[in-house]
Each structure stands twice: as C-alpha cells, then as structure tokens.
C-alpha cells in the first residue's frame, strides 16, 4: 500500500455506514468552519485505511441545504484524506439511464443558491480551476471496480445540482434535459468545489433512483420510491467502494495527481494583505501552500536552533532549548496549544518523555486536564503497561501507569517533535489499551518528510503542530 493515500468516503442518502470495516472507531474532529454532518468513522478494509462521513448525518438529520459542506471537507482534510469518493442518490434525465444505473460523474452545473461555496473570500482570495471538476484517476479505479462487479455503470455524465429540498418541477426537469444534463441531485455542489480547493482528489458515484418527473411513462418522484431504490442500490454502492479501495490505496501515481496541487497558483491576495483570522482557518485546507498563520505574528522557527550532524552525521538536530530559554517564545507556544484545544473536552494530557514533559506540564492545567507521563522502560515506580516500537536499529518501548487513564477518558498527546511517529504511535496504543481515546496530538515541530504526522492521521488522530522543518 502507498501509505500516502488515505481514502475517504462520503455516503449520501441510504449510505450511513460502511460494511466490513475492521477496527471501527467513530471520532469527532473539530473544524473552524463549524459543525460537520457527523463524527468520522475510521476503519480498515482489506488492510486499507478508510475514513467515512455520512453526508446527512446518521439517521438522515440534515437536508441538502443545511449541510455544512465546508466543515465536512475541512475535517476530512484534517483526518489526512487524500482521495475522496462521494456516493449520492440522483434522478435520471435520460431514457438510457434507468433506475439502478451508476454514473461516474465528470461534470457539474451548480444551481444551488444558499450555500457557502468556498473556503476563500474576504481576507484571502483564491481561484481554482473547475474545468475538470472530478479526478479522472479515481474515476478509472471506480470504473474498473464496477466492471469487475458486473454493475450497470456509465463513465461520464453531467450532474446538475439543485438547491432543494423540494424535487424538480416539470419545467425545471425539462430545462435540465435541454441543457444537456444527465442526472439531477442536491448535494455534489459545492462539495466538489471545496474538495478541489482543499487539494483532495474527488470522484462522484451517482446512484440513479428515479426519472425525476420528466418521463411520461413514470410517476413523479416520491421519497418512498427513492428509499426503496436506495436500499437496492446501496448494497452495490458499498461493494463498489470496497472493491475500489484496494486499487486507490495502492496507486503509486496518486502523488503526482494535479488535484493535489490545485492551489499552487491560485492565490491573488498579497501576503501582507491577508487577514490573520482567515489564514488561521485555512491551516488544514491550504497548509501545503500557505505559511501557517500562527507563525505570522511570531516565527517559532527563529527560536529553534539547528545543529548539523548531531547526534550523528546527516542529522539536522532541532534544539528547543533556545525556545525554552526565550520567555515570549515559550509562552507563545503554550498559548497556541491552549488556543487550539481549550474548546475540547480533555481529561488527560499525555506527555511523552522527556521533552514532551516540558510542554505537557504547563499545558495540562490550562485545558483543565490532568498530566500523564509516558516514560521509557523502567522509569515508572508503580505497576505499568509497556508498548514496544521499532527503531532504525532494534526496538525500544514506552510505559504508562495502569491507573493513569480511565476507560472513556479523552486524551491529548503532547511532545516537542514528531519525526517518523514510532514513539507517538506507541503512546497512542498505550492510551487505547487503557480504554482512553486520543482526541489529538500536539507537537511544537513536525518533520513532514519523515511521515510521522501522516502515520497518526491514518489512525484517525488529528495532528497539530506549531512549525515544521524540511529534512531530518
């Protein structure tokens, strides 16, 4: 598997869960854009990591117009999703697209009117191309998977997104047909636009449930008809998604997909004119191309000393003692952690030996949490459990007291730096073995090229860092 590919699925009407998921876990991820439709469901399918979001919420609580599309895409991005498959119920506008047909959509016409359609706007303006609004690479995988399952599949089609929640009038249905549209739905816009802005590869599977209201030989669409057809289609939809996951997860060409660099030349607002509050909200969506907004007022990297070839040749050691020795810099680092997590319900801050103690200790009382030290083997006085992890040469382990975390407690993991993520992942496993839930991981420094943050995100953990450095 290409570990850089994290697959997300948005389930539409009738698809509120994914069958066959192993290691299932529903987790809440917060978004600066408001409340997403639901918690995210993390799990594995055939050894591939998957993140699932029910678009309307479990139980279908939300209408198409009340869905917070920005928050949905933002939390999927924060969960590390790189490839997103959206499943939706649609009406057919063509005689040869009967109910039961699956359409891999490749174009959209957006006729929605009440929805927030961009992450960008006043304070930071960006324009991305929507000429080809879906990812053809993902479409290829879906087409192959559908063919292997002998599903009725159509590659390519134009989806007209209407506001709803009412179904089309006959005049509207006929107009859409004259416009050359193939299917009509209520949810893929602005979802596809926002996925493009977030540099997430997006593909849409449209499940045809009815003929809208234009067809002279069929009754006007009703909820009863849709529910009945969705129940039939959803089995095939879940099978299609499950079959495609293995292909998408193993795709070695994904990293070079143009969807993943959609923001490269999209910004028109000059850096000095960008609103810091707007920039702060874009830390996940546009983090690849924008400087992290919290560094604009104080550049923490300027307080961190780099020592080359320490502790061995080829290593660039990031020395935080210079940050700790600077009152304003140290205070700023703790303040930024508090700013991010103060609104969360946190029972314990788990600090990893040893530099994690330096940040976990002042942070814990400020977020109204207790402090749990996670230590190297043999350093805790009371009964402990141990978790081994692999190093480049051999293995090591970390330990925690058996009574440090109670079942159901929400835990924030803290350390000074994340590199390959082995120690952090071992700490997560310790928390989970005691029945706790890791709601986030906070680091002063991220070394993204070493993949540790991505490793945690694949476990469904939100990763927050104050700055990053290239290389080792």
Main beta-sheet strand count, sense and barrel state = 11 strands, mixed
Q: How much helical structure, as a percent, in the residues?
A: 25-40%
Mean pLDDT: 90
Strand percentage: 25-35%
Structural class: alpha/beta
How many structural units, i.e. domains?
2
Radius of gyration: 24 Å
* CATH architecture assignment name of the largest domain: 3-Layer(aba) Sandwich
Unreliable residue runs: 292-296
- Just give the CATH class of the largest domain: Alpha Beta
Number of helices: 12
Principal-axes geometry comes out as elongated
Total DSSP E strands:
20
CATH superfamily of the largest domain: Nucleoside phosphorylase domain
């Amino acid at each position: 598997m290409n570990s850089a590919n994290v697959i997300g699925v948005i389930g539409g009407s009738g698809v509120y869960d994914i069958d066959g998921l192993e290691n299932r876990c529903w987790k809440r991820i917060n978004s600066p854009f408001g409340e997403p439709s639901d918690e995210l469901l993390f799990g594995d399918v055939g050894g591939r990591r998957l993140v699932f979001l029910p678009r309307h919420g479990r139980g279908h609580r939300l209408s198409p117009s009340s869905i917070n599309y920005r928050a949905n895409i933002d939390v999927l991005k924060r969960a590390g999703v790189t490839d997103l498959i959206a499943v939706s119920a649609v009406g057919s506008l063509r005689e040869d697209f009967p109910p039961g047909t699956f359409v891999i959509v490749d174009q959209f016409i957006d006729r929605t009117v009440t929805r927030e359609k961009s992450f960008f706007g006043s304070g930071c303006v960006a324009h991305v191309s929507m000429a080809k609004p879906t990812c053809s690479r993902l479409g290829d995988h879906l087409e192959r998977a559908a063919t292997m399952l002998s599903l009725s599949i159509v590659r390519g089609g134009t989806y007209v997104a209407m506001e709803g929640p009412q179904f089309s009038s006959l005049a509207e249905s006929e107009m859409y047909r004259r416009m050359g549209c193939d299917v009509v739905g209520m949810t893929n816009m602005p979802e596809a636009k926002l996925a493009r802005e977030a540099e997430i590869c997006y593909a849409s599977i449209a499940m045809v449930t009815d003929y809208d209201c234009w067809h002279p030989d069929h009754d006007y669409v009703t909820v009863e008809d849709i529910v009945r057809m969705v129940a039939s289609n959803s089995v095939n939809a879940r099978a299609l998604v499950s079959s495609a996951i293995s292909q998408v997860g193993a795709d070695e060409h994904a990293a070079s997909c143009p969807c993943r660099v959609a923001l490269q030349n999209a910004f028109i607002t000059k850096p000095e004119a960008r609103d810091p509050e707007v920039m702060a909200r874009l830390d996940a969506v546009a983090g690849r191309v924008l400087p992290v907004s919290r560094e604009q007022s104080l550049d923490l990297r300027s307080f961190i000393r780099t020592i080359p070839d320490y502790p061995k040749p080829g290593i660039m050691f990031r020395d935080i003692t210079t940050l700790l020795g600077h009152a304003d810099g140290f205070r700023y680092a703790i303040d930024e952690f508090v700013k991010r997590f103060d609104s969360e319900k946190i029972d314990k801050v788990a600090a990893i030996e040893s530099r994690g103690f330096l940040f976990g200790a002042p942070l814990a009382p400020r977020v109204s949490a207790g402090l749990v030290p996670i230590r190297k083997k043999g350093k805790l006085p009371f009964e402990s459990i141990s978790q081994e992890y692999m190093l480049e040469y051999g293995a090591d382990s970390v330990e925690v007291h058996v009574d440090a975390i109670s079942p159901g407690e929400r835990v924030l993991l803290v350390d000074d730096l994340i590199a390959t993520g082995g120690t952090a992942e071992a700490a997560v496993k310790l928390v989970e073995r005691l029945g706790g839930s890791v709601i986030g991981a906070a680091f002063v420094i991220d070394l993204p090229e070493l993949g540790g943050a991505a490793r945690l995100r694949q476990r469904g953990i939100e990763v927050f860092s104050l700055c990053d450095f290239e290389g080792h």
